[in-house]
């Protein structure tokens, strides 16, 4: 089961990082990877997300929010309409560290398709890194 995991230490407290992460309309101002057409902090709700992998056209998804623990964890699960074809559980984890916040962004993929999508998974990892760096810059600006 393929997994992508990227983390970064941000020189800001978890509260500040969380506020930026769940300010869904503002993502269009700073986030090169992920945009929310509809975001929510209510577990069970559908989100409307657009991701842009480096060098590719945007893709839209409507995953369901599966976890929301303010200042700690935010996760959704996206599924293809055909069972066992493609599932992705995406998660943001925030942990306080002496210098601020460790942000961990990861996704676990299941199904028939993910093992066949190596280049897409590499581009997705690059997108995670771009987003993490942009979030760090925004949070550290004050």
Describe what this molecule looks like in 3D.
Strand 7 and strand 8 (100-110) form a beta hairpin. The protein has helices spanning 14-21, 27-30, 118-140; strands at residues 3-10, 34-38, 48-51, 59-61, 64-69, 73-79, 87-97, 100-110. The protein has a single domain, classed as START domain (Alpha-D-Glucose-1,6-Bisphosphate, Chain A, domain 4), CATH 3.30.530.20. Helix content is 25%, strand content 39%. The mean pLDDT is 92. The protein has a 5-stranded antiparallel β-sheet with strand order 1-8-7-6-5, covered by helices on one side. Strands 2-3-4 form a 3-stranded antiparallel β-sheet, with no helix packed on it.
Q: Secondary-structure blueprint of this entry?
A:
Blueprint: E1 3-10, H1 14-21, H2 27-30, E2 34-38, E3 48-51, E4 59-61, E5 64-69, E6 73-79, E7 87-97, E8 100-110, H3 118-140
Helix pairs in contact: 1-3
Largest sheet: 5 strands, antiparallel
Number of helices: 3
- Per CATH, the class reads Alpha Beta
Could you give the distance between the termini? 39 Å
CATH superfamily (homologous) name: START domain
Gyration radius from CA atoms, angstroms: 15 Å
The tally of domains stands at 1
Query: What structural category arises from helix and sheet content?
Result: alpha+beta
Q: Widest sheet: strand order?
A: 1-8-7-6-5
Helix content: 10-25%
- Give the low-pLDDT segments: none
Could you say what the CATH architecture is?
2-Layer Sandwich
Strand content: 35-45%
Order of helices and strands: EHHEEEEEEEH
The coarse overall form would be globular
**What do the pLDDT scores average to?**
92
CATH topology: Alpha-D-Glucose-1,6-Bisphosphate, Chain A, domain 4
| Strand element count | 8
């Amino acid at each position: 089961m393929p997994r992508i995991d990227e983390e970064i230490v941000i020189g800001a407290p978890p509260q500040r990082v969380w506020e930026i992460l769940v300010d869904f309309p503002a993502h269009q101002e700073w986030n090169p990877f992920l945009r929310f057409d509809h975001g929510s902090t209510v577990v069970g709700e559908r989100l409307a997300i657009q991701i842009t992998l480096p060098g590719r056209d945007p893709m839209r998804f409507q995953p369901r929010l599966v976890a929301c623990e303010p200042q700690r964890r935010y996760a959704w699960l996206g599924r293809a309409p055909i069972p066992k074809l493609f599932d992705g559980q995406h998660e943001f984890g925030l942990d306080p560290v002496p210098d601020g916040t460790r942000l961990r962004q990861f996704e676990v993929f299941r199904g028939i398709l993910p093992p066949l999508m190596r280049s897409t998974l590499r581009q997705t990892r690059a997108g995670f890194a771009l987003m993490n760096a942009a979030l760090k810059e925004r949070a550290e600006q004050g």
